[in-house]
Amino acid sequence: MSAFPPPSVRTSPSGPRPAADSDPGSGPTAAELLDFVRRTAADTGLVASLPRDPEGRTWVRLDGPAGSEAWLIGWPPGTGTGWHDHAESIGAFSTAAGTLKEQSLAVRLPADGWKTLELAEGVDRSRRLPAGEGRAFGRHHVHEVLNESGTEHAISVHAYYPPLPQIRRYSRSGAVLRLEHIERPEDWQ
């Protein structure tokens, strides 16, 4: 008998979940990360210094608070992340320029042992984050972030603690979420 859940799992909606804080004394809380990304996004000199590419996203690694990992990210019109999570890391992001859209799932997914999930009705959430707005999130938060503008470049600041051990990438077709691959820090640094 396998110790893992079956390869396909059905989810059910959960109520709104507050962003989980980190363990006491082990690093910044989600609220502290949110404060950091908001303050950093308001630094017009830093935001203006980000190289922009009309074809693809650009990023610069920043020093985050208390050992966290932080990034300044540029989003050309029509770009996005695709569905992903940040594993065991808590995080926050804030839009510095333009408007980003976040689509997320209000359900806690099993951490391991599955490849395909059938999502129940009512788990989808969507929010628009114009310049100056941000949000924090807890561990295993599954989302995609998009710049839906056809003409305007967007810029945002993101922070994670602990520094990202991996990013799980998903594809989605209707109610079916499929784990496609796992990226490690050496893949993006």
Number of domains: 1
- Average pLDDT taken over every residue: 87
- Helix content range of the residues, please? under 10%
Order of helices and strands: EHHEEEEEEEEEEEE
CATH superfamily: Jelly Rolls
Backbone structural class: mainly beta
The largest sheet is: 5 strands, mixed
Which regions are unreliable across 5 or more consecutive residues at pLDDT < 50? 1-22
In quaternary terms, these chains amount to single chain
Strand order, largest beta sheet: 1-7-13-12-4
End-to-end gap: 39 Å
Describe the model.
It contains two helices and 13 strands, in the order βααββββββββββββ. The model is unreliable at 1-22 (pLDDT under 50). The protein has helices at residues 30-41, 44-49; strands spanning 8-10, 58-63, 69-75, 83-85, 90-97, 99-105, 116-118, 124-130, 134-137, 143-146, 154-161, 167-173, 176-183. It starts with 7 loop residues before the first strand and ends in a 6-residue tail after the last strand. It has 189 residues and is mainly β. It has one domain: Jelly Rolls. The strands form three sheets. A five-stranded mixed sheet has the order 1-7-13-12-4, with no helix packed on it. Strands 2-3-11-5-9 form a five-stranded antiparallel sheet, covered by helices on one side. Strands 8-6-10 form a three-stranded antiparallel sheet, with no helix packed on it.
What's the structural blueprint in terms of helices and strands?
Blueprint: E1 8-10, H1 30-41, H2 44-49, E2 58-63, E3 69-75, E4 83-85, E5 90-97, E6 99-105, E7 116-118, E8 124-130, E9 134-137, E10 143-146, E11 154-161, E12 167-173, E13 176-183
Parallel strand pairs: 1-7
Antiparallel strand pairs: 2-3, 3-11, 4-12, 5-9, 5-11, 6-8, 6-10, 7-13, 12-13
